[in-house]
Amino acid sequence: MSIIELKNVSFWYGRKTPYEIKALDDISLEIEENSITGLIGHTGSGKSTLVQMLNGILKPDSGTVIVDGQDIWAKPREIGKVRFKVGMVMQYPEYQLFAETVREDIAYGPKNMGLEAEEIEARVSRSIAFCGLTPEILEKSPFDLSGGQKRRVALAGIMAMEPKILVLDEPAAGLDPKGRREILSGIRKYSEESGTSVIIVSHSMEDMAMYCDRVVVMSHARVLANGTCEEVFSNHKMLFDAGLDVPEITSIVLAMRKAGLDIPENIYTVDGAFSALKSLYGKGGQN
Amino acid sequence: MNFDVGLGQYYESDSVIHKLDPRTKLFFVIVYIVAIFVARDAYAFIPLACVLVFAVILSRVPIFTILRGLRALVFIVLFTAVLNVFWTSGTEASMIFQYTVIPDTWTITLYWEGLYNAGLLAARIICLLVCTTLFFSYTTTPIELTDGIETALSPLKKIKIPVHEFAMMMTIALRFIPTLIEETNKIMNAQKARGADFNNGGLIKKAKALIPIIIPLFVSAFRRADELATAMECRGYRGGNGRTRMKKLKMHLRDLFWFLIPVLLLAGVILINIYGNGYKL
Questions:
Q1: Average pLDDT in the A267-280 region?
Q2: B193–A88: do the CB atoms touch at under 8 Å?
Q3: What is the CATH number of the domain that holds A155?
Q4: Do A21 and A128 share a structural domain?
Q5: Cys bridge to A127: A153, A160, B100, B187, which one at CB 3.0-4.6 A?
Q6: How far does chain B reach from its first CA to its final CA, in angstroms?
Q7: Higher pLDDT, B37 or B104
Q8: Do A237 and A263 fall within a single domain?
Q9: Which pLDDT score is estimated for A28?
Q10: Contacts (Cβ under 8 Å, ≥6 apart) of B81
Q11: A158–B194: do the CB atoms touch at under 8 Å?
């Protein structure tokens, strides 16, 4: 079942001015429930614009956005409610922290939802656990934390709203490899345990291959491909044409094939490559 | 939030007016403004308007753009004009009509003088606005303008006034306006995504709703200031002493021409004031 459906959505920046740019060109797309969808595309392909359509920050110039079976712009005055259903973590979310303590900052979203104090407290503790933070941090000022910790607090602030759909725009940008892994696997765990559908925008093919179930490729304001990781990453030519890359391990596998090694080409994780090589070695030993 | 301000946007072109030295433009505008306020005779406004129209045509800025810039100030012009219509008294002969609102205490009297005054004052304000926006914003980048001000005021350095520092502060402030607007929009979107509501509720609630925007905005402005200071020091910035410029301001022959125009205009306006027989403001 699809939880988000875009129908013929188009959007321009600076429409009817000399600086008009078409950011989304007649996009139709379905996002499946209980899955992690990766959204990839080079800079300026329309990824960030697309995700801002999903919670009504931007309004499409034409077409409809259907979230959870409802057209979100059917009642424009109630667009605020959509934002509790679709949680959005913007790029570099650490710059939106403002409260005196981490606890207050994470509670800001749930408070705006009008929840009871006890429920808010419970949600705050749950969300920090998913983000790999410890309760001591709650009384600290968000401005005293390290960059990686700030990022997690900002993420926890959205998770505490417990939206049905969680959208993350480059959640791991600018973090070190360890921070990257922890944040992304935290998101994966959160999605699996809470049944939340997740959309991740990223540049990193490796992260997509590791953490996503499905991948949507965007190029020049259009959707180029939409399928499982295997379907998308095996179409090397399409990715290269869109100015993107295949995961590093896939390039290695492709180079091996070129060198004459009989290894399947639809490999996009290190584990996959490992087992393929092992079976190849096994065969070699027998002969 | 939409920051659609027509007034004060640079209009890209390579017209004669664009190429003028910013110091010439400063001189022109100052003398022109003096001329506007010196003008008392109605006929004096004819050369003033002609010179301005001439400059607008030469600058190749579309007249529509200039009119749109004026739109924001229509209210001020109307307000001044209306005040003048009713607050000017004239002679018995020039009275147009009289209306008594409350007998013996409040009568509205309209004189021809009032209409003339209103018209001339409106002309004054419009000339003033068109002249300053044309020369300072449509045809001059903020950087050129501050450069011009700095060089024009550099003699003041002799009496220990930190002209360079002021000019640098102005340049930086102007440079960061669009950045801060963009930043504000980003933060607003992020807080909206957390359910912030900026439009509903009473005054106190609305003011409170701004806290989640203002604090991150200040934090990031301070961070930017810090980074900028470091970057400037890394590139060897240590104030204005001994600093050379990549673009040296240079006067050309055309600048002489534009120096002469306002001087002649001012002289003309004074002569018309003395010898003209139009309505006197």
A1: 85
A2: yes
A3: 3.40.50.300
A4: yes
A5: A160
A6: 43
A7: B37
A8: no
A9: 92
A10: B118, B119, B121, B122
A11: yes
